[in-house]
Amino acid sequence: MFIGNLPEVSRRAFLRRSAQLASLGAASSYALGLAGIGEAAAFDSSDGYKALVCVFLLGGNDHNNTLIPFDPANYGRYRAIRGLASDGTGVGLDRSQLSSTVLAPPDDQQLTDDILYALAPTMSHLKARFDAGHMAPLLNVGPLVAPLTRAEYESSNHVRYPRPAKLFSHNDQQSTWQSSLPEGAQSGWGGRMADLAQSHNTNAMFTGINASGNTVFLSGETSAPYQVNGTGAIKIAGYGGWLLGSRAAGSALETILGQHNGSIMANDYAHMTARSIQYGEFVNNALGSVSLHTQFDGGNGLAKQLELVARLIGGRGSLGVKRQVFMVSMGGFDTHDGLPGKHPGLLAALDGALNSFYQATAELGVADKVTTFTASDFGRTLTSNGDGSDHGWGSHHFIMGGAVNGGRFYGTAPHISTDTDDQVKQGRLLPSTSVDQYSATLAKWFGVSPGEMPSVAPNIGRFATPDLGFMTTQ
Known about the structure:
Helix 4 packs across helix 13 and helix 11 packs parallel to helix 13 (339-363). The chain has one domain (11-462). By secondary structure, the chain is α/β, with parallel strands linked by helices. 48% of the residues are buried. It has helices spanning 11-23, 37-40, 72-82, 124-131, 150-154, 170-179, 189-197, 247-258, 264-278, 280-288, 301-314, 316-319, 339-363, 435-446, 453-456; strands at residues 50-57, 67-69, 102-103, 117-119, 135-142, 208-210, 226-229, 232-233, 323-330, 370-376, 395-400, 410-411, 433-434. Helix content is 33%, strand content 12%.
């Protein structure tokens, strides 16, 4: 069974991308000229199957207790600002807990203030992935419209020194992270990659697959995500059959779920639900052909999502795909209070799920073809509010996979401080690396051409380093 391709690029989408490219100016290496139109439409899938998997940590992960300063000088600053959970003075971790998860940078890398980081004590598997060269931390990354200094941030001239709208707000910053555009955007950078890749798949339907609900990340200009739940294609009891002892009730449910009205959100939901139901048997048959020896924790919600993603990747031949973008998510990271009690368990669940997923990709023979990366609403304050931490901006994230140039750090390590120029009050990090650079580096590996890069990362032309180097060139 084959499902027809969607159009590669609609006229409206092409014109929009042209406008984005032109807005960067003729001096930009990404500007669109007449000679570059052919390149702008290019997408390279000649190197076989590849997948990107976004792991979104809902609520704003506390990066300060995820990557912790370990060297005596920086740990002393950390402890002075955060206090210690163990003695009731704050939310910080004891240095004695960290010795087994220290991430030693290579000899040719020196971080800000000679900082030496350790992962949270419950993240031993990611420590092993770092040591093996398959995981890399990206330091102080967050949404930016353009490079921004603290003085520019504090300026009242927001036209000259633009910054993302509605900073420190959950829903706004989730949307901004996922789209590189203001809250309310109708496409995300995962979906815009899917737009470019879908014509390279026999079944374009399965280019973007979302296991975490309706989010903007996988919505494209011409593509829409295929929705799955923790076990596979969405099944709705009674749909098109018998419901409450009545065939008429089942038919009514089918009509209701397919109805369109004046609400964009309701229409999107109806469309995605209908697609998932329509092609459910096809997807579940593909899943049924895949068995894994890798063990996933059935009580870990993120692990269940990633197990499904692994099985979908295992069924890529049946699904007819060469390029895919997935999204999974995990909640609970809004730790205004109870940080010492909640956060270690969240990180342990994240660590275990990511480790099982990497093992599954190795079992499937695609560890170097699948790249997993984390994202979140924002980071959190270095200062404690007593039992937790508050909304921030920049944060640290992880990239994992066989094609990752791991075992080293990327981005710029911030000072452990509340008053240096890389902070905006209370130890909120002013990002030194943009989400556009993050997405562009992933997109380049995925196959997006330089001419199309501004359609994925709309602000990329304003940053001097569009490729952060954490992915292999092959």
